[in-house]
C-alpha cells in the first residue's frame, strides 16, 4: 500500500494539543494495523488544498465541505467532545463571541455593528452563523450588520479580531473554543459568549478514495474502540475528548439543509 498521511490541523490549537493529536492518531492507526506519516500543515495554509490530496489516511475535515463534495473523501470517524453541550455525541456548535467588556447583552444588540466570518466552506465559521441569523431577518431588515469582514480564514483570527476590536462579534467553533480555553485561558479571558448556534455534526477524520476499503473499515473500528484502550486517557484529557464515533457522508446532511435554507431565503452570505 502507498504511503498515506494523517493530520489534525483543525483542532491543533497549540503545539501541546497537536502533539496529543499526533500521539492519539498514531496509536489508533497502529491499532488498525496501518502506518501513516503525520504531516504538519499549519495555518494559514489553505485546508481545501490539503483535503484534495490523494494520500489522505486520517485527516480532519469540516462536515460542510464533506457534504458539499469539496473533495473526494471517505468519512471515517468524528470526535466526541467532553463538553456538556455535546451530550456524548459527535456534534458541535458555534459560539458567537464578543469582547468581555462590550456593552452587548443580546445578539440583537450587535445588529448594525461589524461582524466577521472565516471561509465560505466552513460550517462553524460561516454556514452555522448564517443559519442562526436567518431567524432574525425580515423583509424590512434583510441585512443585520452595518458591515461584515469575510475571509478571516481561521478561528484564531476570529478570536483575535474580536479582542482587538476589528469586529464586534464573530462565530467560534465551540470545540475549538473549549480547547483554546483549556490550553490558553489568557486568550479567552477577554471574550464571552453572547449566543450559540444549534448543534451540528462535528468535523471528522477522512481518507482519500485511494485508501483501500479494508483499511477504512479497520480505521473505523480502531477509532470506535479507542476510548477503551489504556493509551487513550492521557491524550484525551489534553484534547477534551470522550471518544470517537464512526460516520458516513450522510451524517453531514444537516449542513446542506442549512445551506439550502439560506439560499432559498436569498441570504447567500451572513450580512
Automatic annotation (TrEMBL):
It comes from the Bacteria. Pfam families: Phosphonate-bd. PANTHER family: PHOSPHONATES-BINDING PERIPLASMIC PROTEIN (PTHR35841:SF1). This is Phosphate ABC transporter substrate-binding protein. It comes from Prosthecodimorpha hirschii. The lineage of its organism: Bacteria, Pseudomonadati, Pseudomonadota, Alphaproteobacteria, Hyphomicrobiales.
Amino acid at each position: 500500500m502507498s504511503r498515506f498521511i494523517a493530520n489534525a490541523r483543525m483542532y491543533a490549537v497549540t503545539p501541546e494539543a497537536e502533539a496529543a493529536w499526533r500521539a492519539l492518531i498514531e496509536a489508533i492507526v497502529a491499532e488498525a494495523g496501518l502506518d501513516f506519516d503525520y504531516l504538519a500543515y499549519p495555518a494559514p495554509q489553505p485546508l481545501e488544498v490539503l483535503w484534495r490530496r490523494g494520500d489522505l489516511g486520517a485527516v480532519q475535515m469540516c462536515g460542510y465541505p464533506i457534504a458539499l463534495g469539496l473533495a473526494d473523501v471517505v468519512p471515517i470517524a468524528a470526535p466526541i467532545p467532553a463538553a456538556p453541550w455535546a451530550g456524548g455525541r459527535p456534534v458541535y456548535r458555534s459560539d458567537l463571541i464578543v469582547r468581555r467588556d462590550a456593552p452587548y447583552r443580546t445578539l440583537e444588540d450587535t445588529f448594525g455593528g461589524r461582524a466577521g466570518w472565516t471561509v465560505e466552506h466552513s460550517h462553524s465559521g460561516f454556514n452555522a452563523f448564517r443559519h442562526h441569523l436567518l431567524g432574525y431577518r425580515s423583509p424590512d431588515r434583510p441585512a443585520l450588520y452595518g458591515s461584515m469582514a469575510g475571509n478571516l480564514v481561521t478561528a484564531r483570527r476570529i478570536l483575535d479580531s474580536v479582542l482587538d476590536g476589528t469586529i464586534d462579534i464573530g462565530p467560534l467553533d465551540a470545540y475549538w473554543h473549549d480547547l483554546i480555553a483549556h490550553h490558553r485561558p489568557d486568550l479567552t479571558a477577554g471574550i464571552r459568549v453572547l449566543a450559540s448556534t444549534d448543534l451540528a455534526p462535528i468535523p471528522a477524520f477522512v481518507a482519500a478514495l485511494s485508501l483501500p476499503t479494508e483499511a477504512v473499515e479497520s480505521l473505523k473500528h480502531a477509532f470506535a474502540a479507542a476510548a477503551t484502550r489504556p493509551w487513550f486517557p492521557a491524550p484525551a484529557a489534553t484534547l477534551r475528548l470522550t471518544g470517537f464515533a464512526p460516520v458516513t457522508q450522510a451524517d453531514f446532511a444537516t449542513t446542506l439543509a442549512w445551506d439550502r435554507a439560506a439560499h432559498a431565503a436569498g441570504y447567500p452570505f451572513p450580512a
